[in-house]
Amino acid sequence: MQMIIDRFEGNMAVCEKPDRTMTNIPLSQLPAEAKEGDVLIVEGDCIRIDQIETEKRRKAAAETMKSVFKKKRS
Question: 8 by DSSP, 3-state: which?
């Protein structure tokens, strides 16, 4: 299953599941380098960061922001 880290609250990561519901994952179960916006692959007890999908999402978000701010200046 794929999830996206939405935010951190205390010792938990609040993650969005594909059905757009939220779930909490203890930080102790995440890779040490996990950060907000990372796409996680959850397979049983194994959680890893999907680097390729995370980068795609970051680039798409950056392009959207660039487009929004370009329109505001015009």
Answer: strand
Neighbours of 11 (CB within 10 A): 9
Express each pLDDT in 38-49 by its tens digit: 999 999 989 999
Residue spans of the chain under pLDDT 70? 71-74
We report the CATH number of the domain holding residue 18 as 2.40.50
3-state SS track over 10-49: CCEEEEECCCCCEEEEEHHHCCCCCCCCCEEEEECCEEEE
Fill in the DSSP letter of residue 62.
H
Domain that holds residue 61: 2-73
